[in-house]
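Worked problem 6 (solution included).
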Amino acid sequence: MHAWPASEVPALPGKGRDLQIHDTATGRLVTLEPGPVARIYVCGITPYDATHMGHAATYNAFDLVQRVWLDTKRQVHYVQNVTDVDDPLLERAERDGVDWVALAEKETALFREDMTALRMLPPQDYIGAVEAIPGIVPLVERLRDAGAAYELEGDIYFSVEADPDFGKVSGLDAAAMRLLSAERGGDPDRVGKKNPLDPMLWMAAREGEPSWDGGSLGRGRPGWHIECVAIALDHLGMGFDVQGGGSDLAFPHHEMGASHAQVLTGEFPMAKAYVHAGMVALHGEKMSKSKGNLVFVSKLRRDGVDPAAIRLSLLAHHYRADWEWTDQVLEDAVARLDRWRAAVSRPDGPPAEALVEEIRAALANDLDAPAALAAVDRWAAFQQEQGGTDEGAPGVVSRAVDALLGVAL
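Solution. The predicted structure is:
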């Protein structure tokens, strides 16, 4: 599966700062000090209704992570999956009377278009669940053969008790886990499971649903969590720098994935930091496909909204915060974009070197994009009110805003 084209990231004078970021597993800020190649895995979409502002906010957060790393003169190995076979996708295809493969391809293509328009840096490896199946089957067989998985009516389940570190990603107690499992795709009430929290690794073929040859597992399709584990281990290896996604993935998805990987490899942890973006609401409720309360990037673009303004609307909120999309949020972003473009369109301006360092410092401090925006606002206001004599300053600001914030002026 191919990703989307990369926009050029301007090189800035000097060097950026190492990133301090909030790690869900420890509940505190950690300083990330990757090697020459920083490694990040971000969970991708299930392509049946893309791309809403909740998606955009999540991928914007991890785009900033990449930009901070690139500014430190590191390379970045970014991997993202596409869950192109799963119950929600199959249910939507049946509801709409369309082929599930065609639906997945259509929505994945739209997602690529939105990511390109928003100047999100693409992953080096963009892998679909279906194409990952040949690598998933051996992992499930290894877990089963090691006694960390068991069969129940043809389905294969992972035993969470096989991992002594289970629970260290989310930090939740068993009762909270059980509630979230039921809400987020698990089946804690299924009779016969050893532990209500045990997640499915391999679903035996169901009549009328797609299935693949699973070798000794029989025909079927993979569970949600093992998909990402297989892709991450294959392309990044164990102990990569950041596992990212929305806050609703901390449990069960990232918790279960970490346990799968840790049992498979005997190493801990799967990722050095588990980083989660907040949720975006509309009319007082979290945007979700099940509720249908979605604002789509593609619809805004069709309505003539500049993608740079959409991106600024995301950057105006701290990535870990839950926030609400409103018309005013977009109006403020459009006005900010106009002010910034007017400021950099002049032939000279106030010196910009200090501004570049302010942006770097803000982003290195747990991706504080609102603080970075405020710094650019101050420079633009000074430019508007008093101007300056530095002929290179507007160009420096344009390149810094593009390189570090992904906004083309």
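Discussion: DSSP finds 13 helices and 14 strands in the chain.
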